[in-house]
Amino acid sequence: MLKLTCCNDIRQFASPARAQLLRSITRGIERECLRVTPQGRLATTPHPRALGSKLTHPYITTDYAEALLEFITPASPDWAWPLAFLMDVHRFCAQKLDDELLWAGSMPCTLGAGHDIAIADYGSSNQARFKGVYREGLGLRYGRPMQTIAGAHYNWSLPDLFWQEWHTCCQCSGPLQDFINTHYFGLIRNFLRLGWIIPYLFGASPALCRSFLQGRSSDLAVLTPDTLYGPYATSLRMSDLGYKNHAQASLGISFNSLTEYTRGLETAIRTPDPYYAELGVCADGHWRQLNDCLLQTESEYYAAMRPKRISPHGERPAKALHRFGVQYVEMRLFDLNPFIDIGISQAQCLFADVLLLTCLLQDSPPITSREQSENDENKRRVVTRGRQPGLHLLLCNRERPLQTLAHELFDDMAPVAAMLDMAYGGTNHAATLQGLRSQIDHPDTTLSAQVLDAVCSQGGFFKFAFGMSKTHTQSLKATQPDAHTQSKLQDSVQASWRAQQTLDATPQGSFAEFVAEYYA
């Protein structure tokens, strides 16, 4: 039974008139993917000039490694538009890659030595150098192979009119932004409790190339000489082998309030770590990392979901959040779907909408350290052995079957799906839930199981992912965006180069002063 927050008046959003407020939910997608050679090796070429300046282009950039492309859609209230725009960007980029391919999987292609993985280079301005040094620091701290992992992020926010209506329903007298902050953080806490359902349903990295480990040992099984896998794994990308920072485990950053969260981030970027200090920050004019603290910047905190605010004045993320409040949330648990050319499906987006709205509308008490340990353990169990028969998760210090908890969650989500379907018309959300629910009792039908079956049948992870990469890239090259979109994207390339030229021509102070001002 869905336990609604604040007051029962929230049920009024299930009425046809108020449900319309949900039509203005905005969504944006960020998709990362590697560029690889025609032989499936990591590309060593610079970011293609035909794609624009990766420093200033609004839709096409790189993430950590020079070969790790990142495609970004603007936010839109039309739930189908981000996927359509993402497809256009993929088609546009595929035309510019010459003979290179877009890698289909979250885990990378066969890698050589870690030091051969080039870090993204953004240019000579202080802003560009800052991004480059940050990435060099990540390579020192976690190893460069980790900077070749790819995923998809889902950015999500509710419209102002929804918040105003809910604020009124609850008869709150405080500032509206405080109300918004409180409930976005409630959403995040519930997502930390329930987000394990994402890798269970959509995890797509149960296997990887042995080369990713760079000689490190693991408890993974051997499938082929070059492929390691977890027999019941769903998302090795989200396990300790992927985007996991052991140094961050002791940070204790709290999502119980905006103040606690931003205070925790501020502390982390100012607390020296002995190991990072030993690595050194700057020697003989060469910067190895931005600082020797637990975090170089707030972005280094790898949470499953993060509150975000685009600052109008360029403040650091924690300062912008503290000053202006939460604008949207960024959900970071989606693996790339290797069977889809753009890496993310409509079903993932529809499911995310229902789950996030459910997390918002449920009661969300503060998370204690004990509960956070449970949340972390549940996520670990699902990403490493989520399809294991009889798997149990933790709830209030008790072991409960994953299937039971998943069915209860789907029961809670059903009225929210109906609410969204009333807002948009049709049955897309309810039908998506119904289609996915069968996977709870049949884990062999989940995406990770399908990927593992394909990996096994094709003789290893590389053969499977390389084959999908060739198929997708060829398909994307075969169809261009329409003439208007093609022209818009081409114009954005030229505009990005003009923007970078302007930035490069602007007089720069010393880089040390630029870094110091960032932390001021």
Report on the structure:
With 520 residues, the protein is of the alpha+beta class. The protein has a single domain (8-519), classed as Creatine Kinase, Chain A, domain 2 (2-Layer Sandwich). Helix content is 44%, strand content 12%. The protein has helices at residues 16-19, 81-96, 126-142, 160-169, 176-194, 197-202, 258-268, 274-279, 317-324, 346-361, 369-385, 402-424, 428-441, 447-457, 461-478, 483-505, 511-519; strands at 26-36, 60-62, 68-72, 101-102, 152-157, 207-209, 221-224, 227-229, 282-283, 286-287, 305-308, 328-334, 392-395, 398-401. Strands 1, 2, 3, 4, 5, 11 and 12 form a seven-stranded antiparallel beta sheet that branches. Strands 6-8-7 form a three-stranded antiparallel beta sheet, with helices on one face. A two-stranded antiparallel sheet has the order 9-10. Strand 7 (221-224) and strand 8 (227-229) form a beta hairpin. The N and C termini lie far apart (48 Å).
TL;DR of this structure?
By secondary structure, the protein is an alpha+beta fold. 44% of the residues lie in helices and 12% in strands.
Set out the fold topology.
Elements: H1 16-19, E1 26-36, E2 60-62, E3 68-72, H2 81-96, E4 101-102, H3 126-142, E5 152-157, H4 160-169, H5 176-194, H6 197-202, E6 207-209, E7 221-224, E8 227-229, H7 258-268, H8 274-279, E9 282-283, E10 286-287, E11 305-308, H9 317-324, E12 328-334, H10 346-361, H11 369-385, E13 392-395, E14 398-401, H12 402-424, H13 428-441, H14 447-457, H15 461-478, H16 483-505, H17 511-519
Antiparallel strand pairs: 1-3, 1-4, 1-5, 2-3, 5-12, 6-8, 7-8, 9-10, 11-12, 13-14
